[in-house]
Amino acid sequence: MFRNQYDTDVTTWSPAGRLFQVEYAMEAVKQGSACVGLRSRTHAVLAAANKAASELSSHQRKVFRVADHAGVALAGLTADGRVLSRFLRSECINHAFVYDAPLPVSRLALRLADKAQVCTQRSWKRPYGVGLLVAGLDVSGAHLYYNCPSGNYFEYQAFAIGSRSQAAKTFLERRFEGYNDYTPDQLIKDALSAIKETLQGEKLTSSNCTVAIVGRKDDGTVEPFESIDGNRIQEIIDSMEAAEEAPAAAAAAAESSSMQEEDKGTDAAPMDI
């Protein structure tokens, strides 16, 4: 379990130049339930898979609103994620009180990264074992950031974290180039499709996923960050399944008609040779 006693303290470097406790925190993110984020020019969408510890318990909340213009989705230790979401909420409130303006999303992600980085250089702190997707809207448009337990943060067009997130990232990598021009409904459908890739055979329903959206409407008004109602999510899932089944049904009908034509051709009397 221990790597030559170099992981007993977060400030102890291994001879290879690694901080193992930071790597353990990043591994906790990989073990968490999957979260997906994607954005267009005007909207950002967060989606998370809801997984319960047992059949007798409810799932833990994975998507949090931090302000009218921003929210987060987390993978890893949910308790750490709640602490960080409260920190982000306080930062947004304080900035709005002082400057009478919403905190830019880039600065929000930077402050979160600074708070996480402090835990990598203090012997009396451990790294936060949670990764956060920060989605929001400001004067420059919609943004999506991934904040790592190491203190690094990156801006993405689309990204996925958590358990089996590689399947979701593969799906997003095939389609991300067109996301700038996507409508909100198209973003939601792709977010649900990416979550479906991580479920490993489990059927996607409104009960095992959470979707939230923030953006700017055509008239310029801001659509506040909010979770989408379960009934609407189920309607979108049903429409996606119907769209997937339509080509298969058409192909089956075409195959059956071709087989009928072949049968008609074999019914003719054999030639007398």
Explain what you see:
There is one protein chain. The protein has 273 residues and is α+β, with helices and mostly antiparallel strands. 40% of the residues lie in helices and 22% in strands. Strands 8-1-2-9-10 form a 5-stranded antiparallel beta sheet. The protein has a 5-stranded antiparallel beta sheet with strand order 3-4-5-6-7. The C terminus is likely disordered. Keywords: Cytoplasm, Nucleus, Proteasome. It holds the Pfam family Proteasome_A_N. It is found in: Cytoplasm; Nucleus.
List keywords for this structure.
about 270 residues; alpha+beta; Glutamine Phosphoribosylpyrophosphate, subunit 1, domain 1; 5-stranded antiparallel β-sheet; about 20% strand; globular; disordered C terminus
What is the topology?
Elements: H1 20-31, E1 35-39, E2 43-49, E3 63-67, E4 70-76, H2 78-99, H3 105-118, E5 130-138, E6 141-147, E7 153-155, E8 158-161, H4 165-173, H5 184-197, E9 209-216, E10 222-227, H6 230-266
Antiparallel strand pairs: 1-2, 1-8, 2-9, 3-4, 4-5, 5-6, 6-7, 9-10
Helix pairs in contact: 4-5
Shape: globular
Q: Give the amount of beta strand, in percent.
A: 15-25%
Topology as a string of helices (H) and strands (E)? HEEEEHHEEEEHHEEH
Mean of pLDDT: 89
CATH level 1 name? Alpha Beta
Rg, Cα atoms, Å: 24 Å
Q: What is the second-level CATH architecture?
A: 4-Layer Sandwich
Instruction: Please give the count of helices.
Output: 6
How would a crystallographer describe the biggest sheet? 5 strands, antiparallel
Secondary-structure-based class equals alpha+beta
What percentage of residues falls in helices of 4 or more residues? 25-40%
Low-pLDDT runs:
268-273
In total, the number of strands is 10
Distance between the termini: 83 Å
What fold name stands as the CATH topology?
Answer: Glutamine Phosphoribosylpyrophosphate, subunit 1, domain 1
Strand order of the largest sheet: 8-1-2-9-10
How many domains make up the 3D coordinates? 1
Question: What is the CATH superfamily classification?
Answer: Aminohydrolase, N-terminal nucleophile (Ntn) domain
Protein name: Proteasome subunit alpha type
Subcellular location: Cytoplasm; Nucleus
Domain Proteasome alpha-type subunits: 6-28
Family: Belongs to the peptidase T1A family.
